[in-house]
Fold each of these.
Amino acid sequence: MSQDLLSAVAPPAKREITTKPRFSDKVFRGVVTSGALSSLFILSLIFLFLAFQGFSVLRTEGFSFITTSSWQVVLDDAGNIDPTATVFGLGAMLVGTMLCAFIAIIVAVPISVLSALYLNFYAPAFLKKIMVAVVDLMAAFPSILFGLWGFFILMPSAEYWAKLLHHYLGFIPVFQLDPLVFTRSPFVAGLVLAIMVIPIVTSVSREVFSQTPLDRIQAAYALGATRWSMIRAVVLPYGRSGIVGGAMLGLGRAMGETVAVYTVLNVVYQVNWHVLLGAGGNVASMILLKFGEAGPQEIKALMAAGLILFLMTLVVNSIADFIVARSGGKGR
Amino acid sequence: MSTATLMKPQKPWQASTQQRLISASVFLVAAAISYGVVAATPMKGKLAYVFVFFASLSVLDFFFHLVTRGISAAKDAVARTVVAFGICVAVLPIVSILATVFMRGYKGLHFGLFTHDMKLNSVSDPIAQGGLLHALIGSTILVLVALVISLPLGILTAVYMTEIRGRFMRPIKFLVQAMSGVPSIVAGLFILAAVVYPLTKSYSGFVGSLALSILMIPTIARTSEEVLLLIPNDLREAGVALGGTQWRTVAMVVVPAARSGLVTAMILGIARIAGETAPVLLLSGGGDQVNANPFSGPMGSLPFYIWKSYSVGTEESITRAWAAILVLLVIVLVLFISARLLSERRTNK
């Protein structure tokens, strides 16, 4: 009797225990992996298509596409493009891009580092929360808003500061200018870019500063350091590479900015080293300017310019990511 | 009752009343100096007050602390003032931007703005005529289409980086970072080169959305990654221990637990692209009438409307631009604040 019962409720057959993923998991992993590879896919497509469209221009111009500074489309009598006289050289706009971006970084980095120090080490808790939200909010503002604000509100003040700089520091070559035109200069564009970049640099530096090992901070205080000497001895050395990385990230953002620069800057195709002179441009704003009335050949040149801009920002951003990733995570 | 022996609790780290009084008076003196200096010299403007105030405050602080407490305390006091100056300079523009937009945009607001398009009006017409209905509808459609494309891709990327953690994790992390740095005009040019010239050959809302989703994917991916990393590992282990496959664990346990965070990621993605101008200028054109079909015809959008009104440059058109900016800013503010509230509720739980 009991024998029968036992055989009736016999344990189920032994299941196979395996680490091999089931079919559903294989599908899941496949879908997720291919979705995650979309960023690789899109980035390489951007490179391929811009290179494909700009190839003919890049081949005819060669290396002088970057080094020379004239951008001329010459038509012959029949209205076709004259290939010998037409030149595309991006040099002037590359100079302008770097100039505006560097002004932005020079202005933004000290302010951002001070703000990050304030938020991490000086601000009372309630103020810190509000300020962090406000600075983050600023990063979410659309760029056209910065452009219009820069044009209508910042420009009059910035012109005044530019005149001061010219008056008192005019002996330095970059502050010289020949026709006294202060409006819409790279200086103003750089200030607008600086304001757009401040939230980025601030949040990166804040992140890095907040990772400063607490024991070192407390050790500095225990040795009798004031708050400032603690910051100088512990926080700044620890966070230095993070600041550099944040600055590079900001540089990348400032180089690629289009609409704000276009609104504020007087985009003229010429090499302009004088930051206070109202002429200049950057690659992105030039693309926007020339795009409207560009013929097929010029569009190809603009695509090539876009490719150069893409590669530039990619390099700067990669270096920045590398530095920031290396600076975080150690200590504590 | 031997209260005399009980010490009163002391807080030596807090400033005493006397110290507070002294620092307040230093503050007042600095304010007075800034007022006097600005009045006496040819310097002008509100910013001059701020600048002179902080300069005189740091000088006063330095000498006061030098005399009372020595050189390192004096340096510390100056550093405190300079750091406070830094945050003030960082926050001043945002205050100015908000104030400007509300003051100037307010004049251009009227109810018809939300019920009329610009089919029968030009931007230089009196402000009471016409509106930005077409721009609002266009922007909404652009954002929704971009969202449909980039939300799955962004979340899949985040799930890969937090759940699967496979061979490609480091390169993908790097690529997502790199993608978030792609300038918006390059995204526009790419869609132009890859889709518009070879395939569609015309403006439409859809190609604009494609460019916007390139900008949106990295934002969503990075925010969702942060959110998914916050989900405790116990949940995943519990799911697997109960016999769930990885697919079931992620879909039934991890993602529902992170739901509000993923919504935050979505909102931040929308806020990122809502005001993006350059790709819209290149790709979606800008009609003056309501066009609800993203696949054909130019489609208006808020940034394009602002751009167009600003470029015309008459008084009415610039008022229109400020009004549209106000609408855009309010949308961004609402999105941003709701994202904040959602993420705060999550962290408090």
Amino acid sequence: MKIAVPSEHQTLNEEVCPSFGRAPFYVIYDTENKTTDYLQNTAAGSQGGAGVQAAQLIVDQQVEAIITPRCGKNAAAVVQEAGIKLYRSISGSIESNLKAFEEQRLSLLDEIHAGFHRHGGR
Amino acid sequence: MKQVLVLSGKGGTGKTSIAAALIHLMKAKAYADCDVDAPNLHLLVKPEDEGDHKDFYGLQKAVIHQEKCTQCDLCRQHCRFEAIHKTSDYELDEFACEGCGVCQWICPSDAITMEPAKAGDLKRHWKPALFSTAQLRMGSGNSGLLVTEVKKRMKEGTEMLSEEVPIALIDGSPGIGCPVIASITGVDLVLIVAEPSVSGISDMQRVIETATGLNAQLAVCINQWDNSPEHSKEIRDFCDEHRLPLLGEIPYDPIVVDLVNRGLSMAEEDCTAGEEVRKIFEKLLVLIEENRKEPIA
Amino acid sequence: MKIAVLSGKGGAGKTLVAVNLAVAAEKAVYADCDVEEPNGHLFFKPKERESESVEVTIPVIDTEKCTGCRQCVDFCRFNALAMIGGKVMLFEEICHSCGGCQLVCPEKTIHERKRSIGMVQSGHDGEIKVLTGILNTGEAAGVPIIKEILKKIPAKGNIFIDCPPGSACSVMESIQIADFCLLVAEPTIFGRDNLAMIHELVTLFDKPAGLLLNKVTDGENPSQIYGLEHHLPILGKIPYDRELSAINAAGNIVSREIPKYEMFFRELLQRIEKEASHETSTGA
């Protein structure tokens, strides 16, 4: 299966990028043949709706899981509709997160934050 | 690097003055101004170099090429934003254009193209310290993207510095919308400057509501508390109830205005406001240290 | 006459001035276009409130007929549409209601429906009609609400428009119908920079304007210097006054509490009227 992780640069040695929609890259890791690809996030420069477009990019890659510290409401709606599971990243490098995922040590991201366009309210 | 963001909800609460004082006190090696609508921090941190400049492009906007236009009127009829006017030629009101691309699509003679429109300017200074800032062009609505760019340029800048930056300080944008959320994303601690008034409290609550979902640690301070002791008490009670650390209460001090007009922050001269801001700074350091030990997931 | 009250930044005293000018005019309309943070109603506490929802149009996709060609998703420049498993998903809050998706759909499977993004509330405080635009939290753009408020403003009478802070498109919308713009500025270098910004804006729109200096102290006033240097008529000065800020902070209207301020705002209104008529007669 393929996993996506937002990243600042094309490396596995850095921490997971804190922003899902505006991350410059996504690490696409294939658990079967242990290959790593870097997908440039063309949505990062969107004026609005970056989360939706970024999620669409990932959905189109046939990814089955995403490891991220947080995810906006709109992006989450897209990936959940596509049946992709969201896992909460842990501190440490992307590589250690991938390892933790394979050892089933990551928990599901339960809280979806409100994101840009809705945050509770009156 | 820990990132501290100063926010207020309402404008005019003294957010920038307090941010500048904190920058002075922590001898910050990196800071940013995310108030891209009305950036003011540069007036107090006084960059000493020209800095590097970059144009910021927002959404594309329509451009009408008169030589191809057959005046069929379809673009004007289909524009939902009333951005195309018919005079002798068809003209675009670039302030009304939202860049949807409908006119380009509907035009039968390819007389309309969508082209990048400059929406602001990004600037980065290096002296006396790394300072990333931007100015949004008039009429170019709020921009979370520009705020993200400002923060990104600060972060990239710190990677180019020879020494490590322990704390970076960010002056946030007012309001509760897109730019504020973009300001909060990825920061470790948010200091909210509250003004003791009905509107100040209502705006503070709205900004806290916005920040809560974003996993940053929150702290509050009151500015000019003695302008309304009753409302200051209300803020205090609110903080107690929501277990928000209240780091200090700065009194109104007429010297602050004079200092600001001389380009100085309240921490740069002996005054009652400066004293309180120093206490806030020390408590802030403690919070950051705690945060370093147990980072919020 | 329609007077728009602006400031480059929140907290300069825009609402204080607009509210008290409306009180000075006695019979007036106060229109709060600061739809993200509408605070004028906290002062007027209007009675007999009526609310009217403000709606925008959003697309509805007929999933039965949709062939999943993805043209609408590709067309939407705001990223309000996504395509998952051959199905189109809509993100209402991001949609700008441009109607593009409906146009490009080759199967004509898209029609539109209305969606509320906020409301315009109208009420009365004695002879003052209070119009308040309220944007729902989480909504991106308040311009449709401002347009709705402006539609409700009568052609004649004393109209005071409390604008959003800054110089974004929402401010441009708010000053469209104004005969005169009153710029409110604080006596700091921040105030001066923000003043320069909105001065540029009103100049661009060819609106006659005047300056009101707020929170004035004894020291140097950079905003005043700006006004003098740029031939922007200075129509009044409000000194920094703790009593005023306490009354204002409590949500009370200062010219109803202190006769000195009642006088001040009456005179200010007269000066504005004089300045505006002068501007029109000289064709400026």
